[in-house]
Write a structure and sequence with these properties.
Layout (H helix, E strand, L loop, with lengths): L2 E6 L5 H13 L4 E5 L6 H9 L6 E9 L4 H6 L6 E6 L7 H8 L8 E2 L5 H13 L3 H30 L1
Parallel strand pairs: 1-2, 1-3, 3-4, 4-5
Bound molecules: 5-O-phosphono-beta-D-ribofuranose.
The site of 5-O-phosphono-beta-D-ribofuranose (RP5) has 10 residues, from strand 3.
Length: 164
């Protein structure tokens, strides 16, 4: 199976990114985690991304806050799918990171999830890999079913409390 890279712009993004890592592990997807910054370590970010396909990666996830250029900077150097997580790390509540991540110029796509939406980033990466992996698709279906059952149980509890 292809690997997923989870890259964050700073170790201060880790609390948000952890949910992506645990979700990928739950799905038994081989995952590497790195800190590369579009602004502070641009050479390392570029070198990693240029070699990512040859090194067995299928999808890159990039999380960054503030002027969040990391996902776009990675996407500029690969045709692997890049998923951006805007991180709420600033006084602007992550709106700056959302716009910096999502507003990519035509020709260089970044699939942007919600602010701090790291679980969905991992699930989207898994769905991309599952296009050519039936066993992974089955795991995703099972996870989706588990989520449905959790919500149904919550509904039953609320209905019992308020509807008698
Ligand atoms: C961004 O700046 C990082 O992704 C992080 O969200 C934000 C703040 O970084 P630190 O100053 O905490 O290292 O590049």
């Amino acid at each position: 199976m292809k690997k997923v890279a989870v890259i964050m712009g700073s170790d201060s993004d880790l609390p948000v990114v952890e949910k992506a890592i645990t979700t990928l592990k739950e799905l038994e997807i081989p995952t590497e985690v790195h800190v590369f910054s579009a602004h502070r370590t641009p050479a390392e970010a570029k070198a990693f991304t240029e070699n990512a396909a040859d090194n067995g990666f299928g999808v890159l996830i990039a999380a960054a806050g503030k002027a969040a250029h990391l996902a776009g900077a990675l996407a500029a150097n690969t045709v692997l799918p890049v998923i951006g997580i805007p991180v709420k790390s600033s006084t602007l509540d992550g709106l700056d990171a959302l716009l910096s991540t999502v507003q990519m110029p035509s020709g260089i796509p970044v699939a942007t999830v919600a602010i701090d939406g790291s679980a969905n980033a991992a699930l989207l990466a898994a769905e991309i890999l599952a296009v050519s992996d039936d066993a992974l698709r089955d795991k995703l279906r099972a996870l989706r079913q588990k989520g449905t059952e959790t919500v149904l149980a919550k509904n039953r509890a609320i209905e019992e409390k308020y509807n008698g």
